[in-house]
């Protein structure tokens, strides 16, 4: 094709050796142990300056092709990703007062660049020329997808807008980026702002020994403990602390206190996300209208598997209809139990987790805490590695010389059957201050055939928020947390096992948002298989495997209150799509009223009026799930049907796993996911396996 290949940019005005972020562009891994806040903005400014110069040159090419236009654009994308990626990662795993204002400035700069690039008419025209070339059909399927996705994304980013509309669209994107950052930081600050310091032993009655030990360790490290001669227990709003407290604490008054604090996070004062939500929704609706969409949900669905809003709402309401009658029975049973067994005549929101855990214990004689001694951290990790090594013919080995951002982060390499490295990942498992809550996988480095001929191997971040070791005792995790780890590792495998070499469709890139959860949810299923559980469920003191009686109880309890859980997920999903299609900031219905309407339709238990769940719903207001939260259930249909194949052919069948890897895990966004699913399963997906796995079949 015509035109020279633009090489890697080397004409830097900053000596890369003086800036570890810039130096990290060409090193094997980012230099996490050297990066400081003062390095961030100079590195961003340097790379953006270089990128703008090259884009200006590229748009002047008379006959653009893959090598002369698309490849140099990949170089720009990769370099900027190497600069901004570690900074964004730091914001999630080690936020600080010094980094925060710099991060916010960096977000503004990167958003401005994205908007500027997306609305570059000359660049858009040049990529259209690539798609119109006579030899376009001769490009690989991967490269054709990169071009087609680029053209689609240009349209969705306002490239075809003109004049004031284009300017306004750009302004909206900048402001939305600021609002997302504000939302996330408000939630983080509100979560961190409240601590319940307990000195009276009676107030921690009911908490299991492992929970007490973690709370005591937390307290010993707190400022309140340092100012007091007494030892106590510290309960926070972080999930590993909050959830078991709500499940086990006998003190109903303190449960109410914790519940109120948790569900009203970021809903008052300077951290109030209510105005952030209103402005975000108004701007998203305005941006969608500028692009010619009826509402924001329609613009979001334009790049997803689901065809339109009716298909999504119909899907969710079908699941709700099948689940609600069962959920009503589950909740009625819980109310009766709370009244007769616990003396709670009127079940409140802060009683539900406590009563549910007691009912689970009575019905199945098992609790998450009883299982924790059998799930010590290293056994779980080794067992999970053993599973994927057997399935996919890979080996995983730890390396202790990689740069890390915190002492508890670990680095692992993944090798194929011949011992050749094919990918790597970081694991950061523990909750700590200044770390965003939840669990996630993200890209560190993306697989790519570089212009210099070198194959760049993918590297993933796997981040969780589990309890850390206490004293000499290893970290002990609940079965729910084990399932979370398997889930995130499924995302990691999707990123790491790709065989795609084009940056734009490698790993999870280019995969429709409502299919990206397929590999992660698929992995969760193995946590319920005896032959897999035996790989890691060994008592941390005795080494004994999980007894049959305990495993059978765990299995029997698997679908405990599954219909109620299903409805809760549907509630979130339906609220998300409706608030992005029906809400009008100037209308008569508030966000809270819309959420209440959704709850009236699908829920069997409505929370108290003071509940402000939406104010901490980061997935849709600060993450990538806006008008896409339904993706969890949509992809779960796919993943359940995929796992049904393993149930039919053998849970540890390496041939089935090889087919899954070849047809789905390795292809990135280079093929249509429905086509890939049919190639693996032999037919289109069915909800039958999902309903069966959840115990909701007729």
Notes on the protein architecture:
With 698 residues, this protein is an alpha+beta fold. Among the domains are: 16-160, Glutathione S-transferase Yfyf (Class Pi), Chain A, domain 2; 194-265, no CATH class; 376-510, Collagenase (Catalytic Domain), CATH 3.40.390. 55% of the residues lie in helices and 7% in strands. It is built from 28 helices and nine strands. The chain has helices at residues 20-23, 37-58, 66-93, 99-118, 121-132, 141-156, 163-193, 209-220, 223-226, 239-248, 252-263, 274-290, 296-301, 309-342, 349-364, 368-371, 377-392, 479-496, 518-524, 530-533, 548-556, 562-579, 591-602, 618-621, 631-649, 654-665, 673-681, 688-693, and strands at residues 195-198, 233-236, 395-399, 410-415, 421-430, 440-445, 448-449, 455-456, 459-466. Strands 3-4-5-9-6 form a five-stranded mixed sheet, with helices on both faces. The protein is globular and about 80 Å long. The termini are far apart. Residues 1-7 have low confidence and may be disordered.
In short:
The chain is an alpha+beta fold. It is built from 28 helices and nine strands. The longest helix has 34 residues, at 309-342.
- Under the CATH scheme, the architecture of the domain at 16-160 is Up-down Bundle
Strand content: 5-15%
- Name the structural class: alpha+beta
| Mass-distribution shape | globular
- Strand count, sense and closure of the main sheet? 5 strands, mixed
**CATH T-level topology of the domain at 16-160:** Glutathione S-transferase Yfyf (Class Pi), Chain A, domain 2
Number of strands: 9
N-end to C-end Cα span: 59 Å
Unreliable stretches covering 5 or more consecutive residues: 1-7
Mean pLDDT: 94
Q: Radius of gyration in whole Å, from Cα?
A: 26 Å
User: By CATH's scheme, which homologous superfamily of the domain at 16-160 applies?
Assistant: Endopeptidase. Chain P, domain 1
In terms of quaternary structure, the protein is single chain
**How helix-rich are the residues, as a percent range?**
40-55%
- Our count of helices gives 28
CATH class value of the domain at 16-160: Mainly Alpha
The neighbouring-strand order within the major sheet is 3-4-5-9-6
